[in-house]
Amino acid sequence: MNAKKLSILLAAIVLIAAQLACAVGEPTLSNVRVSSDENGENPTTTFGTFDTIYVVGDLANAVEGNQVTSRWYAENVPGVDPNFFIDESTIDIGAEPIGFVYFYFEAPSDGWPTGTYKVEVYFNGTLNSTVFFTIQ
Q1: C-alpha to C-alpha distance for 127 and 114, rounded to whole angstroms
Q2: Count of other CB atoms within 10 angstroms of residue 83
Q3: Residue 89 — φ and ψ, nearest 5°?
Q4: Pairing outcome for strands 84-92 and 67-76
Q5: Contact residues for 106 (Cβ-Cβ < 8 A; gap 6+)
Q6: Which of 52, 87, 76, 90 is nearest to 132 (CA)?
Q7: pLDDT in tens, 37-84
């Protein structure tokens, strides 16, 4: 009888441990969007020549050492080579848990050239998302 109770107790412990392991899950970056604010609450893909552009993504289960990188390109801008590389920035995730990350570019002093731009977002070195925006 005691062996049966011990087996049931061990099975229950294994089930609870399995549920906890699944609840934590793998680190993910999702819902990457272009926005007019750093919280991503005002998503948009159209900006004026003097606007600040934000690219925001939601993080889940991120751990220290994860990295999120953005690569900004002028995709179709008159007078600029197609897919001209502008800049790159990387955020290293620290020990403090965070639920989102954001990158931003302020307008140059003479304003953004009109045209279409793209931002590639990488999570731990792998392309996660590509977002586009237009300057009018």
Answers
A1: 26
A2: 11
A3: -145, 145
A4: antiparallel
A5: 52
A6: 76
A7: 999 999 999 999 999 999 999 999 999 999 999 999 999 999 999 999
The single-letter code of the amino acid at 54 is: Y
> Which residue bears the tokens 């502008």?
86
> Rounded to whole angstroms, how far apart are CA atoms 54 and 57?
10
Q: What share of the chain is helix, strand, coil (3-state, %, to 5)?
A: 15, 45, 35
Q: Which amino acid, one-letter code, is at 18?
A: A
Cross-strand pairs, 67 = 92
Query: 57: closest CA among 82, 93, 20, 4?
Result: 93
What single-letter amino acid sits at 20?
L
Cα 115 from chain centroid (whole Å): 24
| Class level of CATH domain 25-135 | mainly beta
* Residue 58 vs residues 22, 63, 116, 130, 131: alpha-carbon distances, Å: 19, 14, 24, 14, 14
pTM over 0.70: yes
**SS3 call for 28:** strand
